[in-house]
Amino acid sequence: METVLYHTISEVKEKVREWKRAGLTIGLVPTMGALHIGHASLMKAAREKCDRVVASVFVNPIQFGPNEDFDKYPRTLEADVKLAGECGVDVVFAPSPKEMYGEGIKLSNDLLTYVCPPFDYVDKLCGKSRPGHFDGVCTVVNKLFNIASPDFAFFGEKDAQQLIIIKKMVKDLNMNLEIVPCPIVREEDGLAVSSRNTYLSAEARKKAPTVYKALCEVRNLISKGVDNREILLDSALNVLDKDIELEYLEFVNISDLSISSKVTLKNLIVIAVKLDGVRLIDNIFPKG
Ligand code: PAF
Description:
Blueprint: E1 4-6, H1 9-21, E2 26-31, H2 37-49, E3 52-57, H3 77-86, E4 91-93, H4 97-101, H5 119-122, H6 125-129, H7 133-148, E5 152-156, H8 160-172, E6 178-182, H9 202-207, H10 210-223, H11 229-239, E7 245-252, E8 268-275, E9 278-284
Parallel strand pairs: 1-4, 2-3, 2-5, 3-4, 5-6
Antiparallel strand pairs: 7-8, 8-9
Helix pairs in contact: 7-8, 10-11
Bound molecules: pantoate.
């Protein structure tokens, strides 16, 4: 079947009603575009599991802080539709901000109904340096769920905090769908694939794989029984390229995102760094 590109909510809703009437299951892959092999793995997983697949391409203004990269975020719709087609996506939904949030609306929570995840889930890790980010994510994801009425929605494990928060939202608000987590896709040198990798200079790109190397080093030590946070942190700093600034390295419980004071084999190891002005995140399980 040919991939169709829709820009309006009503077109998607009409198609979804038709599919539902025919008793078909729907998979949704929410994205901000600049699609790469990581997104392709999500779209292929959706294709395998569902009768029909919608991929949204929307650079969501309300999840970016005032000094973040909303304006320069890569926008490559033509290539995105092509890749989505190759992955068997039925509908690409690429709305404008006006279509999603209405005419002239100031995107503050004075004027827009927001979905805000619990404080305990957002006052740490990426949420600490990106205030309001996860309110913006949950709000847009909620809107996308209402528009596409998916039975399954596919999210990458690279954005671990986002994934855990979205699962929490689905549970707390009794949403009628299943979240399907998909494994991190890596370049050959270990760097986790991300649309923001394109911001890296050639020189920085060569240094970036030390982020994954640092995670592997920490995992290795944990598997040998090291559970002291300072020792683990030092070992990561020794492996990270000296031009990489560490924002956080933490050990979290994936059930509730709480941070472990005593590191165990069950904790997810999460990291965020800045390299060349670019923020990179990654994570790994001790027994990966
Ligand atoms: O992970 C992303 O690309 C975005 O945060 C998402 C889930 C598409 C919401 O805008």
